[in-house]
Amino acid sequence: MKKIKIILGIISALILAFFLTGLFVQEVVYTNEVTINKPVNEVFTDFQNVELMKQWMPELKSIDVLEETPEKVGSTYKVVVENQGKLITMTEKVLAYEPNKRLTFYFDAENMLKTDDYVFTSEGNTTKLIQTSTCTSESYVMSCLFPYFKSALRKMSQQYLEQFKSVSEAHN
């Protein structure tokens, strides 16, 4: 009986710690970067090319315009991705657009709200691309989960940047 009480106490403590996480950590922020052997104007153009995007982000199934503004900021898109055989629809909004310098997107994917800020820096004939991502959720349980998956989210974003680098450098 004493062992059962100890086990239940440990389980209760872990559950309590999990739910307290959401009180102390409201968002998860991480940064990734890659250097691409191409001038910044070409990298910036490649980054927005939907056909190339499907090569470096194979889960991407479609991007449809919901509303597009001439200055790009405020434009919204419906993005469909496939995750483990399931189609997920999200809304993407452009928060910042500075040609050859910055792109910022806000994604609403059901319980995950994510902002991706991309900064393009020219370094001669190469370009440094820095991504800063912020993840939050309207769901308290999901917001409790994000801190535990930060390294996996960061690793996945870095993998996409590396794949973009390969595709962009191969594209003329």
Walkthrough of the structure:
This protein has 172 residues and is an alpha+beta fold. The chain has helices at residues 2-24, 40-48, 50-56, 140-145, 150-170; strands at residues 28-36, 60-67, 76-83, 86-98, 102-109, 112-123, 126-136. It has a 7-stranded antiparallel β-sheet. The model has no long low-confidence stretch (mean pLDDT 88).
Task: Name some characteristics of this structure.
172 residues, alpha+beta, Alpha-D-Glucose-1,6-Bisphosphate, Chain A, domain 4, elongated
The oligomeric status of these chains comes to single chain
Q: Give me the count of strands.
A: 7
Structural class: alpha+beta
CATH superfamily: START domain
The count of helical stretches stands at: 5
Portion in beta strands = 35-45%
What strand order characterises the main sheet?
1-7-6-5-4-3-2
Task: Quickly describe the structure.
The chain has helices at 2-24, 40-48, 50-56, 140-145, 150-170; strands at 28-36, 60-67, 76-83, 86-98, 102-109, 112-123, 126-136.
Please specify the SSE layout and strand pairing.
Blueprint: H1 2-24, E1 28-36, H2 40-48, H3 50-56, E2 60-67, E3 76-83, E4 86-98, E5 102-109, E6 112-123, E7 126-136, H4 140-145, H5 150-170
Helix pairs in contact: 3-5
